[in-house]
Amino acid sequence: MTSRQFSRGEFLALTGLLSGSTLLRGTAEAATPPPSAPAGRSEPGAGPSREEMNKLRRDCRGSLASGTPKDAGAELVRIGQWMQRQGLSGDIYGQGELVQSFEKRIAGLLGFEDGCFMPTGTMGQLIVLRLYADAGGLRTFGVHPSSHHVLHENDSHSVLHGLRDVIISPWSRPLLASDVLEAREPLGTVSVELPVRWLGGQLQTWEQLEELKRTCREKGVKLHMDGARLWECQPYYGRSLADICRGFDSVYVSFYKMVGALGGAMVVGGKDFISAARTWRHRHGGNVFQMYPYVASAAMRLDDVLARIPEYVKRTKAVTELLAADSRITVLPRPVQTNMFRVFLRADPAALYRQVARIAREDRIWVANGFSQTRVPGVVETELQLGEGVSGIRDAEAARAFLRLLEAA
Fold first, then answer.
1. CA pair distance 314, 111, nearest whole angstrom
2. Run of H or E including 84
3. Domains of the chain (ranges plus CATH)?
4. More confident residue, 408 or 100
5. Which residues, other chains included, contact 286 with Cβ-Cβ below 8 Å and sequence gap of 6+?
6. Radius of gyration of the chain (CA)
7. Cα separation, 226 vs 149, whole angstroms
8. Stated pTM of the model
9. What angle do CA 14, 18, 23 make, to 5 degrees?
10. Cys-Cys crosslink for 242: which of 58, 95, 111, 264, Cβ 3.0 to 4.6 Å?
């Protein structure tokens, strides 16, 4: 491995040219073995199997990546015990005190009239886009090239609803008001991700965000927030979640990302809009007979997670500076803006995979979920997100463990 940092040209290739899902395999939910690695027991000399990696991860005392595995049975018991302590009962198709009160609570937290719980964020956001298209007559919506709508939903907006995405911004920065003003064709809606996952959690400045809201309002364009990771934005802006959301016509939030719930999402907006969203949830087959396990798992965690996020962001800033001090690593963004970031380094993914296992065995710290090839030969990236997994380790320990990946070069 060379000891220099990437050239400007290489870095722009990393952040500015990746614009299609075929080029973005993403950071896996668990460390992904190379093609030769078996799913079960590994052969002598081969990399560890998935089962072996999963066990190593469960045994770690700390983690730098999201998605720490839980004991599934214990988790269900915990949900049931929480409901009993709260004196709560279940629901029927979302009709019940727990679900409905949680919908009202999230809507109020984000500054909206009402909310509708959704089994998945994909479903919720498709419904939002469809409602705006039907109401306004334009079936085009503007997005960042890394939008979840574009990369991760198998063209569902086009296949199911006859909608068309229009890429209106470059890959290398968040979507801005100027992108809306300079769009090459009329837009009915703009869907904006806060923060931008594929840019390591980057955000618009407060002034840029306010200008974007104002521009959409003046042009009569509906503004929707893909707020899958909205919770992590609050420390950067230093304002309430309701202030951040004010000016958006609707917002989607996730409950398994960062919050750590079993699953589920919510769309919030005006009362009539949410009433229509409930109808479309039914049409999408999303009226699950009983939603309470998902809602309870989110409700029992949310307050604690929101209280901890500022500390996670603070620690992320410290850890990323320790990592970036090594010239063989590039951190994106720098400085970090949330508790999420991306790391680029020169190495072979298979060697890194084996090194992740070695670090987990020796240091009992999980340093990465997986590695993705970039368009720069020999350079890979990984996505890190500091959360509950760093509560038992120090910043210096976390950085030192990750830097051991360089031994695989």
1. 26
2. helix 72-86
3. 8-69+305-408 (3.90.1150.10), 73-300 (3.40.640.10)
4. 100
5. 118, 119, 120, 123
6. 21
7. 10
8. 0.90
9. 115
10. 111
